[in-house]
Write a structure and sequence with these properties.
There is one protein chain. The protein has two domains: about 5-80, Ubiquitin-like (UB roll), CATH 3.10.20.30; about 80-155, [2Fe-2S]-binding domain (DNA polymerase, domain 1, Orthogonal Bundle). About 35% of the residues lie in helices and about 15% in strands. The chain is built from five helices and five strands.
Length: about 160
Amino acid sequence: MPGKQVFTLDLNGRETEVFAPADATLLDVLRDNCALRAAKRGCNQGVCGACTVMIDDVPVRACLTMAGACGGRAIRTLEGYGDDPVMGRLQEAMNASGGVQCGFCTSGLLITARNLLAESPRPAQAEIRSALSGNLCRCTGYVRIVEAIASAAEEVAR
């Protein structure tokens, strides 16, 4: 069993020191050491997208990322978007459209959608669907999620 070590992370804009097993994933550290619950433990294989976070402005699967490899890198979870107006609009649109049902996948979907809008402020529906292809949602069928992202994009672009 590997020993524990100290990790210093740039987490949601704040330097955060954690004491965790040397083989801990970023998802383990976020949930178990930092009490951040938005990133979900879904498949633990990088397939479902429920654990998606941003590292250096790139969406990654926290369940596949070793925490020790994140030193000096900017990690942003959904909790780190508290004052972001685009994320706020995405959340409002998801709620208004019924794009949120059980909510398990929502955090990963929102992180992915926010990244899409940063790269493509007015995405076509096909582009939205492509961006979401790594995020599994078993409740909605994606129609309302795609509509919500398109709606948020239109409002943000105004």
